[in-house]
Amino acid sequence: MIEKRKILVFMGLSFLLWSICSANGLNLNSLGSRALAMGGAFVGLADDFSALHWNPAGIAQFDSFYFGFYGVDIIPSGEYKMDIPTIIGPITLVDAQTQRMNYLAGMGAFYFPLSNNLVAGVGIYVPSGLGSKWDGEDFKLLSMNKTYEWESRIGMVTIAPALALKLSEKLLLGASLNINYAQFKVKTHAGSEDLGIDIGQYEESLSGWGYGATLGILLKPNDMLSLGGTLRTSSTISFSGDISISKINILSMIPGTPLYGANIPTTSSVEREVTWPMWLAGGIALKPFKELTITADAQWTQWSKIDVFKTEYEDPIWNLLIDKERPMHWDDVLQIRVGAEYRINNFAVRGGYYWDPSPAPDKTMNVLLPNYDFNVFTAGIGYNLDGLQIDIGFEYLKGKDRDIQFEKKLTDPEYETAMPGIYKMVMIVPNISIGYRF
Fold first, then answer.
1. Tens digits of per-residue pLDDT, 378-391?
2. What is the pTM of this model?
3. Does 291 reside within a domain?
4. Residue 133 belongs to what domain range?
5. Does residue 316 fall inside a structural domain?
6. C-alpha triplet 71, 77, 79: angle, nearest 5°
7. How distant is the alpha carbon of residue 67 from its chain centre?
8. What domain count does the chain have?
């Protein structure tokens, strides 16, 4: 029988999509323009409407009705070059740049005191959303000199009702229920050059629901110091949808194979469960004097939960043809974030930095959802007047170049789904927030 791994060279790409959509390089690392401008070091402060995301205990600080809106535009710019070594020197198979895309996302939240010590709220926000789009012409040499679409688009929306309790002026607790809806789409070439045939365009469209919770604590021993901790539980998303391969039925036309004459549908329904990993963060906020606030966070994500993905295809022939498991073997990562805010009357100036390491190894790297070690620089300004707060932020993410060696692809079975080559990425993220207390 035809070896399944040779039938769909790029089938494994689809397995990456959900896991990485909140990971390094493809996440909304910060929600709220003020928090973002301070490097996302906000767990120990959590004193504006974005507290629902960072530390729900901060909600207990709101003593009046309060709503806020946040909008962000994520603009990635990537490059990819694949050279293959030959006896006469390297030959370039791909030299491509991502097409210009704008990935819009945001947050809306509303809070209302139930008593002097108890505050309720609800938020709707996008914790993850991005993707990449390439010109299929640049990848023709990888798809038997035919042009296919190469694109991924990912999104997740969380609905989060929350409660926060002020046990005392020094101790605040909070929690939210996270109702997560996620979807993603991917398009790429299905393969397979190894068989000397073209089985066409691969497309995947999945969506699913999952549930989790966020727990937070805030300690305020005095007016100068605030300490916070947040635990966001893991959330298992049950995905379902369809996968199509435009020319997969050509496999039934190969004489002498077990599939000869079989009825192979070009579309199959699919189910897949993926666990969104746990997030644990601790932060500190220091106010050496009234106008200045300095923050620092350590934020840990249990990406080792992304180990092996399992997929079930409704069509029995698809279950025979396509591997149901894909090894990932990701690593846990720790982000370090720092930020500062300086207020002058009604105005504020902010800046920050954080280090965002990639959880994914070289052996899973590909052009649809690449991962990088990011150095991230943030800045922003704010204006407050009579309960109205307007904040503008900007984030610049510089990815460390990644070089996946072609020899690894040829000699190491663990690199079977990797796309060798040189990867580069820069992202800019302008954003704005508007909040009002009344």
1. 999 999 999 999 99
2. 0.88
3. yes
4. 4-178+215-231+278-305+325-437
5. no
6. 160
7. 26
8. 1
